[in-house]
Amino acid sequence: MAQPDLRAVAPRRANGWRENIVTINAVGARRWRVRIIEPHLTTPVTDRQALGWVRSPAQGGSRRTVTPYTTRLLTPDTWDDFAALVEANNGVWGGCWCIGFHPEGISKDSTAAGNREAKLAHVNNGTIHQMLVYRDGSCVGWCQYGPPAEVATIKNPKAYEKGLAELPDWRIGCLFTGSGSRRKGVARAGVAAVLAAIAHAGGGLVEAYPEQVAGRDPQRGAYLHTGPESLFEEFGFARDRRIAKWRWVMRLRISA
Fold this sequence. Notes:
Blueprint: E1 6-14, E2 17-25, E3 31-39, E4 47-55, E5 64-73, H1 79-88, H2 112-125, E6 129-135, E7 138-146, H3 157-162, E8 170-177, H4 186-200, E9 204-208, H5 229-234, E10 238-242, E11 248-254
Parallel strand pairs: 8-9
Antiparallel strand pairs: 1-2, 2-3, 3-4, 4-5, 5-6, 6-7, 7-8, 9-11, 10-11
């Protein structure tokens, strides 16, 4: 399977911001171009503005602009945006607050209030990487990622460790899209921004743990909290090994 080419090309600078066009050549001759405006590389990349998708003419047809989104990292400054989305969606899967992939995970004694406080502590302590996706100024979804020490609690750990030959540099954990914004490319925008951020940070081996959707009945909700396999295939992720009936370890190596 061909590896994608994830590169920033033709940067332009204006008013303290740098514009990059990130080209992602994925499997099946798919090609996506992501326009990202970010601070100069001398400043922390905490805000990405005007994120949009353009379908390549090589895919057969005219160029097509898909709904633009803005992406920002989850930090103390964006906590309220994240919390508003969680609260509008019943705490996310009954009060998880997206703490399940963190080292402490969720136990039978966990509460929604406790999960909220644990998540906020990670944000305040800087022990988190999570890309928030915005539309019209409101947070509509996210893509969680980080090194294994941060994204430490994954499903099916025994099966995962049994076939483990090399730990990844990065893991993609939870993907979530708020009610009313689903099936509109929010998760795709989040994953694209995460891969761009990883490339900016030096690249490395990236793992995801999506659900297989081919050959099974349609799934909803928590079943797809790690995303569908088809989404990661678009970016060039390849199956590494199966760790559950419908769950795969998928990998992608990204250059800086």
